[in-house]
């Protein structure tokens, strides 16, 4: 009987170690999204980016080694209007010809307790880079996980909307960025 108890205990310990050794690093781009919200003439509007890539390495038991990079193809913007899409990829807004992508590169991740984290990193848009802090939640079920979070940027800090578009009465300065990243895990390296 003791042998059976020891074997069960050892088996549970091994399973526990395997679960904690999972590294979530396989981003499922087709199930993930990057969206944004803003106000135009005080009317709330939303949009999304249709093309982006992401590299991620996250082991909940090793936060110090967590890494994330998100690259967005700015010409894939979807404002809900073809005319709007054409305008915002132009020189006064994203200038997609000169700056085809925007990127976020993480510099740190800290636990806030439970499934809540705070991600810090560098956001680069249109040749300008700013520090950002994003509250993030992480939910997992087996080897599948979901990161959700968001942060607010000031578009003029990145020269998004130059010339006549610097008028904040037309398009507000605050842009809320939201992300939903679905990721699968592979066994981590010990």
Q: What is the compact description of this entry?
A:
By secondary structure, the protein is mainly β. It has helices spanning 2-20, 82-88; strands at residues 22-27, 33-40, 43-49, 52-57, 67-73, 77-78, 101-113, 116-125, 128-141, 144-154, 174-187.
Explain this structure.
Strands 1, 2, 3, 4, 5, 6, 7, 8, 9, 10 and 11 form an eleven-stranded antiparallel β-sheet that branches. The chain contains two helices and eleven strands. With 190 residues, the protein is mainly beta. It starts with a helix and ends with a strand. It has a single domain, classed as Lipid/polyisoprenoid-binding, YceI-like (Lipocalin), CATH 2.40.128. The protein is elongated.
Layout of strands and helices, then pairs:
Blueprint: H1 2-20, E1 22-27, E2 33-40, E3 43-49, E4 52-57, E5 67-73, E6 77-78, H2 82-88, E7 101-113, E8 116-125, E9 128-141, E10 144-154, E11 174-187
Antiparallel strand pairs: 1-11, 2-3, 2-11, 3-6, 4-5, 5-7, 7-8, 8-9, 9-10, 10-11
């Amino acid at each position: 009987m003791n042998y059976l108890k020891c074997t069960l205990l050892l088996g549970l310990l091994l399973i526990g170690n395997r679960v904690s050794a999972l590294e979530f690093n396989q981003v499922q781009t087709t199930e993930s999204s990057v969206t944004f919200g803003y106000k135009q003439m005080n009317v709330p509007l939303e949009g999304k980016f249709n093309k982006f890539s992401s590299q991620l390495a996250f082991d909940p038991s090793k936060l110090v080694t967590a890494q994330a990079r998100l690259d967005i193809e700015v010409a894939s913007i979807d404002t809900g209007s073809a005319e709007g899409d054409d305008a915002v990829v132009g020189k006064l807004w994203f200038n997609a010809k000169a700056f085809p992508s925007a990127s976020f590169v993480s510099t740190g991740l800290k636990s806030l307790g439970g499934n809540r984290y705070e991600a810090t990193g560098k956001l680069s848009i249109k040749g300008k880079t700013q520090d950002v802090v994003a509250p993030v939640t992480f939910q997992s079920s087996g080897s599948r996980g979901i990161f959700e979070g968001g942060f607010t940027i000031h578009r003029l800090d990145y020269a998004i909307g130059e010339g006549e578009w610097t008028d904040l009465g037309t398009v507000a300065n605050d842009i809320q960025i939201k992300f939903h990243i679905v990721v699968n895990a592979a066994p981590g390296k010990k």
